[in-house]
Design a protein that fits this description.
The complex is a heterodimer of chains A (about 280) and B (about 325).
Chain A: H1 8-29, H2 35-38, H3 41-51, E1 66-69, H4 75-85, H5 124-137, E2 144-149, H6 156-167, E3 173-179, H7 188-191, H8 197-203, E4 207-212, H9 216-228, E5 234-239, H10 262-273
Parallel strand pairs in A: 1-2, 2-3, 3-5, 4-5
Helix pairs in contact in A: 1-3, 1-4, 1-10, 3-4, 3-9, 5-6
Chain B: E1 9-10, H1 12-26, E2 30-34, H2 38-41, H3 44-49, E3 54-56, H4 61-73, E4 77-83, H5 92-100, E5 107-111, H6 129-134, E6 140-142, H7 147-159, E7 164-167, E8 173-174, E9 189-192, E10 197-201, H8 205-218, E11 223-227, E12 230-232, H9 236-246, E13 249-256, H10 261-269, E14 277-282, H11 292-298, H12 303-315
Parallel strand pairs in B: 2-3, 2-4, 4-5, 5-7, 6-7, 10-11, 10-13, 13-14
Antiparallel strand pairs in B: 1-8, 6-12, 9-11
Helix pairs in contact in B: 1-7, 4-5, 8-12
The chains are: A alpha/beta (about 280), B alpha/beta (about 325).
Bound molecules: thiamine diphosphate and magnesium ion.
Amino acid sequence: MEQTQIPFGMLLQKAVRIRTHILEMLAEAKSGHPGGSLSAVEILVSLYFYKMRHDPKRPDWPDRDRFVLSKGHAAPVLFATLAEAGYIPISELKTLRKLNSRLQGHPDHRVPGVEFPGGSLGIGLSAAIGMALAGKIDKKDYRVYALLGDGELDEGETWEAAMAAPKFKLGNLTAIIDRNGIQQDGLTEQIMPMEPLAYKWKAFNWHVLEVDGFDLRQVIEALEKAENMRNRPTVIIAHTVKGKGVSFMEWDPAYHGKAPDKDTVKKLVESMRNQ
Amino acid sequence: MLGLMLVQMSSMRDALAEALLELGSKDQRIVVLGADTSVSIKTSLFADRYPDRFFNVGIAEANMIGIAAGLALAGKIPYVSTYSAFVPGKCLDQIRNAVAYPNLDVKIVSSHGGVSVGPDGASHQTVEDVAAMRAIPHLRVILPADAPSTRVLIEESWRTPGPFYIRLSRPSVPEVYSSRPDLKVGHVKVLKEGTDVAIIACGVMVNAALEAGESLAKEKISAEIVDCHTLKPLDADTIVGVARKTGGIVTAEEQNIIGGLGSAVAESTSSSYPVPISMVGVRDTFGESGEYKELMAKYGLTSKDIVRAAKKLVASR
Ligand SMILES: Cc1ncc(C[n+]2csc(CCOP(=O)(O)OP(=O)(O)O)c2C)c(N)n1
Ligand SMILES: [Mg+2]
């Protein structure tokens, strides 16, 4: 198995590299979703470079941990992470959203390492339950992770899945919510109030943890606590900022689905690298 | 090449917003529902003007249709709108059981239909929605060709009681009609008379059909061009007449040819006056990411594809 875990101290650098890839990809594509990609960087870094058991040389390895990007519009953060991990060439990232590219606007199975096509919101947690159930049938010890948007939680299917996972005692399942407070039309608490969010999941019998989604130590600790739950699924509510790392995008709903232009990105990337 | 003709481009979404604002002022029963895409679809303009009659349900399309059914049952005329991929995609059952079956006055306006959606890719494009909606009894299925006809057909949907599925496309498109076209639900519009072949199109393919007609004219093929904005109820009388007159039909649509416009035309002509029908449309495949024009070319949805089909059809007789 390829060594995918990197020293804790290097995770920060990975996060910077992935952020710059995201911005460059989106500028090149001239469309796509920066906000929810940037808010999830540290979550994916913690999974792909620290916690998850996976092998970029064997994307179909039956014993691998699975990551489901349910909020599929954050494709850039997934593709950039897969590229940094070695699943696809970094040079391919610039083909995002272009005709005949494997890197579609929303991830799908032509990209090695993509476990689930997540463009239609609300389905990913159900699919993750399926993978976790299969792991139990097969007596495998792989873990399943699903990343959900907080706006995505509006979908009724999420709550159908939320009822099902504790019923099936899926200790091998961890849901992570990117709690950035913004969906497409505006703030989640204005479009469809989510609070009290932790109570909702507790009431559905989940093991609930809350973390600062940019604090790698907190995220990793929570992922580890989740693993210690043998018979109960864990949900990690990761408090984040939409557009994190780009001052004019942070907290601005307009950058949910608006790509920055190339000149701006050039400057942003320079200042990120010099930090 | 652009020559003397100045092509006016405009967006169906803008036309939708304008129509809803006007209907909202005329009729207090009009309410609008959105599912976290209302800024993009521009129904947020209705929300700004009539905040008491606009409801954003979040990313919950099934809930939106169910709520619309309740509003209609209590005397309102709800216009619900989000991306075509998710209405009907997420709520076929609610449309079938809560709206169509009881024949309620719910107007479903889905935007971003077909593959012209562009770089978002297959998950956000639709090839199946028209067939699915056509197969549900009571539903009227409308695909406007451009912004001016969107405006008129939205107003028509308000005048006509009962459930509608009105499907719009995302890109700004050339205006087929100048100002206020005279369009009626359930009636095709013959845009150009012809004798050798008929091109029957809907949605953004109507403009491509007109372009094809011009190319064919240069090759001395006289094509009748028909805007079939209402796929259901289909104007079977006129279409059978067109079949009789031309002896061959090319259909053009921006969705799967299985169950779409071509199928509808075949259903209406096959028993009374069968003629060869060549279907231009998506050939039972998902779309992908790419620019609008690139995708239309790749999936065989251009005026050239219509010309090719028409010439083949004419040559075979
Ligand atoms: C079923 C469905 N409805 C609508 C959309 C359009 N859409 C894409 S992203 C989005 C908002 C998502 O917000 P959130 O889940 O909070 O994501 P994040 O903030 O992490 O980007 C919407 C409405 C979709 N992709 N799927
Ligand atoms: Mg969000």
